[in-house]
Design a protein that fits this description.
Blueprint (H helix, E strand, L loop, with lengths): L18 H12 L14 E11 L4 E8 L9 E7 L5 E3 L14 E2 L3 E4 L2 E11 L6 E11 L4 E8 L6 E12 L5 E9 L4 E10 L2 E7 L1 E4 L11 E10 L2 E9 L15 E8 L2 E9 L7 E7 L4 E7 L13 E2 L1 E2 L3 E6 L2 E6 L7 E7 L3 E4 L6 E7 L6 E5 L7 E6 L2 E5 L7 H4 L4 E5 L6 E6 L2 E6 L4 E6 L8 E5 L3 E7 L6
Parallel strand pairs: 1-21, 14-18
Antiparallel strand pairs: 1-2, 2-3, 3-4, 5-7, 6-7, 7-8, 8-9, 10-11, 11-12, 12-13, 15-16, 16-17, 17-18, 19-20, 20-22, 20-23, 23-24, 25-36, 26-35, 27-32, 27-36, 28-29, 28-35, 29-30, 30-31, 32-33, 33-34
């Protein structure tokens, strides 16, 4: 498939009759190996960051960055999905770039529900006079809870003095005083990353408060290479504030920050523009996890992320589509430890296949490509699990001496993927259990009940449905049914 990027600033309104349906049918016909069944992937074209996630008391609303016309970064729209259970979805009105403050795309942001309406905070992208670079501004779109776009307006026309045009990803929240605020990523004129804090004096007016300061054990002020703060996000769990940030330019630190871009979580106390971090962790230790966003329902702090990174080339772009979202997962503090767990809603998709109690190689009578695997009884002993092995390909997990390895070196990797290595490791005090979700070309590994997670894409064509394991007492395999998406 030839990829034509010559007209990448097309908005949805330019689609010819039947064009998008034709693109979707081509995508479905071309890709019989990699399209997911229970993860959110683009209806056509390119997907990146999750956006605008909010719970209205009855339904969950989520958007994602979308370029409909090709598997590459182009004119960004917000594709809108509504669900009550994360299994059955309806589509709402797409947020399409149509105004002078979003001439070259609608970039990321968050949402908040006020008085029965959804207010989406987003960055408009505009080409600068040089015809080559871009600047961002901040806006609000108002939606009804049944998915109808009602209005939109600009609230911050440009970055404040002292900052460049890299100024994006507003995330709204209510502070302890009951005021509507938002944080937004920025870049200082010296090209250092920063996070700005704004106060909404009304739903149409924003006032700059200043820069967010990072203290405690946060190393952001000492990370001279960080040139942009993307996707700031503030949430709470059991008395702790959770401040997520995707700082561009983080340097690798042993097993941490080895992807093209990585995501930090600061755990501590946030108050009036100051984040005092007691812990700083890399939120996910896999290959493909970036730009996460959280929202809350009546009981849970829920997060989704982009299973992608930058403009990294992957095999599916030759099949007409690119990237997907992670499974939604719950974030919760247990004592001083952050735990990440898959939502219980996904239990209804599980269809038990087999329980294996003896190490060895097994052919699975069922669809291992769409599966859920529980590995129990590891008891901190040497362990290995090999999946989809044939003469050419396999995906492997191995644990020894406190280190869990994910190895995708014997899968299909583009040169772009290989630049960042084919292995990821997690250091553990012990390994007791693994919970694994596989969905054709993505694997999400929850370690020890969610104390660590590894999210990664992998590409093996014409997979053999087999597995080999050593060093565990019991392996339970279930097949996962598909969600109802489009």
């Amino acid at each position: 498939m030839m990829i034509d990027k010559s007209n990448r600033f097309r908005a949805l309104g330019t689609a010819k009759p039947g064009e998008l349906e034709s693109l979707r049918q081509q995508m479905l016909a071309q890709d019989t190996d990699y399209l997911p069944a229970y993860h959110i992937a683009p209806k056509t074209g390119h997907l990146n960051d999750p956006n605008g996630m909010v719970f209205d008391g009855e339904k969950y609303h989520l958007f994602y960055q979308w370029f409909p016309f090709g598997p590459f970064h182009g004119m960004k729209h917000w594709k809108y999905l509504i669900t009550k259970d994360f299994i059955h979805f309806e589509e709402g009105d797409v947020l399409v770039p149509e105004t002078e403050f979003e001439t070259h795309g609608i970039y990321s942001g968050g949402a908040i529900c006020i008085d029965g309406f959804i207010y989406c905070f987003y960055s408009g992208n505009v080409m600068n006079e040089d015809g080559e670079t871009f600047s961002q501004n901040q806006n609000v779109a108002k939606y009804s809870t049944d998915g109808k776009l009602l209005d939109r307006w600009n609230i911050v026309p440009k970055a404040p003095v002292g900052y460049t045009g890299n100024f994006r990803d507003p995330s709204p929240f209510i502070n302890d005083e009951g005021e509507l605020m938002f944080v937004v990523g920025a870049q200082r004129e010296d090209e250092a990353g920063a996070t700005l804090l704004y106060k909404m004096t009304s739903l149409t007016q924003a006032e700059l408060v200043g820069e967010v300061s990072y203290g405690g054990v946060s190393d952001l002020s000492r990370q001279a290479a960080v040139y942009m703060h993307e996707c700031p996000d503030i949430s709470h769990s059991n008395g702790k504030d959770l401040f997520i940030l995707s700082p561009m330019g983080l340097k690798p630190q042993a097993e941490r920050y080895n992807n093209i871009f990585s995501t930090q979580l600061m755990i501590g106390q946030y108050q009036r523009g100051e984040m005092h971090a007691e812990q700083v962790i890399e939120l996910d230790k896999g290959f493909d996890f970036y730009a996460p966003q959280t929202f809350t329902d009546s009981e849970r702090n829920i997060m989704l992320a982009w299973c992608g990174n930058g403009s990294l080339s992957i095999p599916t772009e030759l099949l007409g589509w690119k990237f997907m979202l992670s499974m939604p997962r719950e974030l919760l503090m247990e004592g001083n430890k952050l735990m990440q767990r898959p939502l219980v809603e996904f239990d209804q998709l599980k269809q038990p296949l087999v329980t294996l109690e003896q190490p060895g190689r097994y052919d699975i009578d069922g669809n291992l490509s769409q599966s859920h695997i529980i590995v129990d009884g590891i008891d901190d002993q040497t362990f290995s699990l090999t999946l989809f092995e044939d003469a050419e390909y396999k995906l492997m997990l191995a644990y020894q001496d406190g280190s869990l390895l994910l190895d995708r070196s014997q899968t299909v990797e583009t040169d772009d993927m290989k630049r960042f290595g084919s292995e990821r490791r997690v250091r553990l005090s012990s390994l007791q259990q693994l919970e694994i979700f596989i969905d054709n070309s993505v694997i999400e590994i929850f370690i020890n009940g969610g104390e660590e997670v590894m999210t990664s894409r992998f590409f093996i064509p014409n997979r053999c449905h087999n597995m080999t394991f050593y060093g565990a007492a019991e392996v339970k395999v279930s097949e996962m049914a598909a969600i109802s998406l489009y």
